[in-house]
Amino acid sequence: MKPAYRTLPDDWLTVAESAQLLGISKVSVYKALNCGRLEYRTIEGRKCIARDGLKTRYWGSSQRFADRPQHGQASPIAALTDDQLAAYCHEHLGDDALAAAMAPIDRWIESQRQDPEWERIATRLNAYLGAWSAPPWTAEEANTLAMCLEMAQEVCEGAPE
């Protein structure tokens, strides 16, 4: 029920009423009015907003970054498979830009492959493991492998055995 003192037409709302209807502050309504996301008409010396479609006009215009995940939402790119991600990158970056972006990563991967330290670690790891079964491994075997790899890395870094 509307207060008795209200003299505005039923299809128009004050800023305070609009804020209450939208569940936002009056400041947010004024910001939307000032930046043009909402339109108003001055009635009886007050800024008034049309009631019809107010929620749609406000919320539809305030989704400024619809292609970006909002707070608490996962990125849609995170759900892509490797093939889908590659296709997305090729589509949005182009081959030259993708190659430039991947260059530092590719250099790092290649430096890790060529690091002679891994040869020493592999030799020590093979000495620990002996005749080791091929994958797939059980959880216990995977844990053993991880511990042996860590020990081999420590030994090769000069830590005491």
Topology:
Layout: E1 12-14, H1 15-22, H2 26-34, E2 41-43, E3 46-50, H3 54-61, H4 82-93, H5 95-114, H6 116-129, H7 139-156
Antiparallel strand pairs: 1-3, 2-3
Q: How would you briefly describe this protein structure?
A:
Helix content is 55%, strand content 7%. The protein is mainly α.
Q: Could you describe the 3D structure shown?
A:
This protein is elongated. It folds into three domains: about 10-60; about 75-115, no CATH class; about 115-155, no CATH class. It contains seven helices and three strands. The longest helix has 20 residues, at about 95-115. It has helices at about 15-20, 25-35, 55-60, 80-95, 95-115, 115-130, 140-155; strands at about 10-15, 40-45, 45-50. A hairpin with a 2-residue loop joins strand 2 and strand 3.
What tags apply to this protein structure?
mainly alpha; three-stranded antiparallel β-sheet; 7% strand; 3 domains; 161 residues
If you average the pLDDT, what whole number results? 76
N- and C-termini, Cα separation: 82 Å
Total beta-strand segments:
3
* Major sheet description: 3 strands, antiparallel
Radius of gyration: 32 Å
What is the count of helical runs?
Answer: 7
Low-confidence stretches: none
- What gross morphology would you assign? elongated
Structural class designation: mainly alpha
Domain tally: 3
Roughly what percent helix? 55-70%
- Helix/strand order, N-terminal first: EHHEEHHHHH
- Give the strand content: 5-15%
Strand order of the largest sheet: 1-3-2
